[in-house]
Specification:
single chain, alpha+beta, MutS, DNA mismatch repair protein, domain I, 2 domains, 5-stranded mixed beta sheet, 5 helices, globular
Length: 178
């Protein structure tokens, strides 16, 4: 039996960077995690790092080369990004369902989600996704603005509503002509 060792990474505040290894590059090449850098390391978002930590694929080290456990990492991530848990719940659920998820910052959304089997660069994202906590309210103005962005980028709008247990319910919204 071959025991797969965890990829070493370094926690750098708003991002996590892998070691320079074939295993780390495979995260990006085969599984489409992170962004490959010029030094052949892979830069992961906090969401990606938490997911890969939970899957025991990576080990995250602090600046003193001490391993950070998942609970401590999530606490740090929540300080950096207050909406982290809601976004992570949606990210994890979609990733577990086989979708490729990338940031949608330029669209003003949480994520771009690619249909199963489609990688960024091979095709376009099918949805832009907003992760929303169940107790949060949204105005009609905000809702219309999100729908307009999705429509103008030729993507479907998906809202992922996260309850207190971390379960996610999805709603797909699209324009239609009666």
């Amino acid at each position: 039996m071959v025991v797969k060792k965890e990829i070493k990474t370094l926690f750098l505040g708003e991002r996590v960077v892998t070691e320079n290894s074939d295993e780390a590059r495979n995260l990006n090449d085969k599984s489409v995690f992170g962004t490959k850098k010029k030094d052949n390391k892979v830069e992961l978002s906090l969401l990606e790092a938490a997911y890969l930590m939970e899957k025991k694929t990576i080990a995250v080290l602090d600046g003193r080369n001490k391993e950070i456990d998942l609970d401590k990492f999530i606490k740090k991530a929540r300080k950096i990004e207050p909406n982290f848990w809601t976004r992570y719940s949606v990210f994890k659920d979609l990733r577990n369902r086989g979708y490729i998820i990338k940031t949608a910052l330029k669209f003003g959304a949480d994520f771009r989600v690619y249909d199963r089997g489609i990688k960024p660069g091979d095709g376009h994202a099918k949805w832009i996704v907003y992760a929303v906590s169940e107790g949060k309210t949204m105005t009609w103005y905000d809702f219309a603005a999100k729908n307009r962005v999705a429509h103008s980028t030729k993507k479907k709008l998906m809202i992922g509503i996260v309850d207190d247990e971390g379960d996610v319910t999805y709603y797909e919204i699209r324009w239609m002509r009666p």
